[in-house]
Amino acid sequence: MPGWHEKTKALQDAGKLQLVGIIQEQHPDRTRLFMQWKEMGWPLLIDSLNLLDVSAVPLTYLVDEEGVVRYERPSDEDLETFLATDYANEDAAAPSLDPEVGSPEYALLWEDDGDVSDAITKLGGRIAEAPEDSRAHFRLGVAYRKRYDSGERRAGDFQKAVEHWVRALELDPNQYIFRRRIQQYGPRLDKPYPFYDWVPEARAAVEARDETPVTLRVEPGGAEFAAPLKSFAASAETGTSPDPDGRIFRDEKPLIVAETVVVPTVVEPGESARIHVAFRPDLSLKAHWNNEVDDLVFWVDPPAGWSVDRHHHTVAIPRELVSQELRQVEFEIVSPEDFEGTETIPAYALYYVCEDVDGTCLFRRQDVHVEVSAPSLEISAPAAKIVPKELEAHGDVRIDNY
Amino acid sequence: MWISYLALLLAVQSAPFEVGRPVPALTLPSIEDGTPLSVADFRGQKVMLHVWASW
Question: Which CATH homologous superfamily contains domain A231-402?
Fold first, then answer.
């Protein structure tokens, strides 16, 4: 909706035109921050599961007093005509929606009240009955990612989200809402633009007005800020492994739980993927990060024939002496041209962790084995090729021109 | 069979908002505080509806 918010301000203020928005975001509070920044005071509906079955954004419509759509992508002249016309009531049925829509599993849309695990079970049941229902796959992905972002998180939730989004897009390659959800977390070669790079600017602008920026439940991660790349930039670092002989004691319990996610799920020969590695203190063991010493260090050394964008990563420690926050590392790899089967990308983290508050504090190593799979030879159709950029002829533009 | 398959495809691909047809009365949570809201709740007003994203 380039410019419409600004352009229609006088009409909005005069009560002649009501703006209403709909978004399909995974994290609606980010939109709330955007609206706070741009001072968009109008109502907005959250449709994270894409129940309305929208296939691309942005879309603009003019809807008359009787609730009938009169224009799609209106021009300035269309808007003038629309405002000057008294529309008569006509008998026409609304487009039918997926009959499942409105059933209780969609309660998860309501931010705090939904039972996400129940929604996951029901959507899984739907897919068991209709394995090629792309919308159900997309919604199941949204539900898994929602649970991953909650305290109810189970191991594998984020990877399952990616798997179902990839499947949804395979089934419906023209669905840009599905495509964007994968790109949000995927490799830079597949990105159309940085997704949430506006967040720091928005916060600064809101603070400059002496307002408190909307709090985000989930901070955008590296993939969500990363700019697109036209060609893969392999690491030119000359550093060496900080523990080449593996002499640092392993975190055997482990006190820190590591989870890896590969996006996309399946990596074509010669193609890139983004690896997300999350480290969380095991709360059942009362484990804490020890912040009195040094940053978490992460090292990845891919097998022969593989490229990595960066070998050495650090995650800075917060100011508190002990903490239990999520620490994330993201990196990208390119598989060899003859890649088939599966490969393990060896990586490890070194960190300072305490067994409990006032408990023993340790320096530990954790080996992280990232399993990457090539497309299965049994599948004759090409597996998820995430972004044929040349096909992106859709009117899909980003929000810069608001 | 092909005809019904085609009909199914068309049904699946139909847009939620079509010129000349009412907006679907689907209730969704409002971003402000989660209260249920539908585009159809704005009857009596001229509405500009935006489907967009903050990315």
Answer: Immunoglobulins (2.60.40.10)
Confidence of residue A103 (pLDDT cuts 50, 70, 90): low
State pTM to two decimals.
Answer: 0.89
Distant-in-sequence, close-in-space partners of A188: CB < 8 Å, separation ≥ 6: A226, A227, A228, A229, A272, A274, A332
In a domain, B37, yes or no: yes
Would you state the pLDDT for residue A182? 96
Q: Is the pLDDT of residue A368 over 70?
A: yes
Percent of chain A with pLDDT strictly greater than 70: 88
Please identify among residues 1-55 of chain B the ones whose CB lies closer than 8 Å to any CB of chain A.
11, 14-32, 34, 37-40, 42-55
Pick from B21, B29, B50: CB nearest A69? B21
d(CA A135, CA A280): 32
What is the fold of A104-185? 1.25.40
The answer to whether A112 faces chain B, any CB pair under 8 Å, is yes
Nearest-by-Cβ selection for B50 from A4, A55, A90: A4
CA A215 vs CA A48, A111, A202, A219, A246: distances in Å? 19, 14, 12, 9, 41
Q: Tell me, yes or no, whether B55 lies in a domain.
A: yes
Q: Are A139 and A125 in contact (CB under 8 A)?
A: no
- For chain A, the average pLDDT equals 88
Surface-to-core class of residue A97, CB atoms within 10 Å of its CB (0-12 exposed, 13-18 middle, 19+ buried): middle
Rounded average pLDDT over A284-308 = 94
Specify if B28 maps to a domain.
Answer: yes
Tell me which residue range forms the domain holding B44. Answer: 24-55
Phi-psi group of A73: left, alpha or beta (phi > 0 → left; psi -120 to 50 → alpha; rest → beta): left
Residue B10 CB neighbour total at 10 angstroms:
9
Chain B residues in contact with A109 by the CB 8 A cut-off are: 28-29
Task: State how far residue B51 is from chain A, nearest Cα, in angstroms.
Answer: 5
pLDDT, tens digit (0-9, with 9 covering 90-100), for A268-281: 999 999 999 999 99
pLDDT in tens, A139-165: 999 999 999 998 889 999 999 999 999
* Surface-to-core class of residue A32, CB atoms within 10 Å of its CB (0-12 exposed, 13-18 middle, 19+ buried): buried
Contacts of residue B40 in chain A, CB cutoff 8 Å? 67
For A139, phi and psi rounded to 5 degrees? -65, -35
- Its ipTM equals 0.84
